């Protein structure tokens, strides 16, 4: 009996030491977020154990869990939902059923998932896009780009760009009754990265006739050039998304080689010829003082990786690296950042850079926000935070699109 009690106590200690993250005082529904965080970290721990034992790779195990949450394209009394393709790229399309005397607004949405996981078919994203289509009486397109590590950069960007260019064709806009002057590109997390990169490309491509009216970026990840920002330090063992997991996922976007995440953890992964890019991500200049706090800026060490990955210096992969001339043509932009998020500073720096070149930016910062909150909008894992961000996002679209 004593042995059983000792084993149980030991298991509890191991569980707490590995999976317990103290909750900030301002977190709403802290008990629920603590449980969700423990589930996420347990899945990560299990996936890493399986990978180390040679059973399956980390991303294969997590992908299995994600696929359990996929939904069928079920239409309802307000919205017709179909799975189709835009130039061989899978998309989920939401078309309002009620008649409209004028052409409708449209939203193209890129889902998050660290470039490795997820789909527009996920319950939360299906719920969000359906809600957007119904509330705005808008056409909504959820893009299912190819995923890493089966497909490395630039596959995801190329899929996103191809889907958007196809949708912007005159015959397609006419087919779906879309007003070409009222189109938005949106995305969260890694989907925010793709939304940013695709918008930069579309707005600067003279051959694309129809442009984007606005972009919406929800807690986006926009760079890994500097992997030791203040938000990386504050949220190293953060809620749901830790620094190590973020580094692992973005590494898989480029390569399966374990040398890259090892160099990223030391902030020594950028090539020698990349020094000129650091002005675009210098947080000591671009971050508001409130977020710089007392942290000391140290430029990353160059050349720690024995080979060069072109994607690390490519603004299509890391859109915060775009130069000012690329940013000047961007449309009205809404950026939402979360305080307790390892990616927080990417969005904050992009706000500064866009405003510096005259782009109109609306920025909302959620003081009690966590990364991935929009993934928790449906039973049994819904958070009031996720629903609040949904309402902020859709309300802003309704007023401005």
Automatic annotation (TrEMBL):
Database matches in Pfam families: Abhydrolase_3
Entry keyword set: Disulfide bond, Hydrolase, Signal
InterPro entries per record: AB_hydrolase_3, AB_hydrolase_fold, Arylacetamide_deacetylase, GDXG_lipolytic_enzyme, Lipase_GDXG_put_SER_AS
GO molecular function, one term: carboxylic ester hydrolase activity
GO cellular component, one term: membrane
Alpha/beta hydrolase fold-3 domain segment(s): 107-257, 311-373
Lineage: superkingdom: Eukaryota
List of catalytic residues: 189, 341, 371
Annotated SUPFAM superfamilies: alpha/beta-Hydrolases
Listed PROSITE patterns: LIPASE_GDXG_SER
Signal peptide: 1-18
Membrane-traversing stretches: none
Matching PANTHER family: AB HYDROLASE SUPERFAMILY PROTEIN C4A8.06C, ALPHA_BETA HYDROLASE FOLD-3 DOMAIN-CONTAINING PROTEIN
Assigned protein family: Belongs to the 'GDXG' lipolytic enzyme family.
Protein name: Arylacetamide deacetylase like 2
Taxonomic source organism: Theropithecus gelada
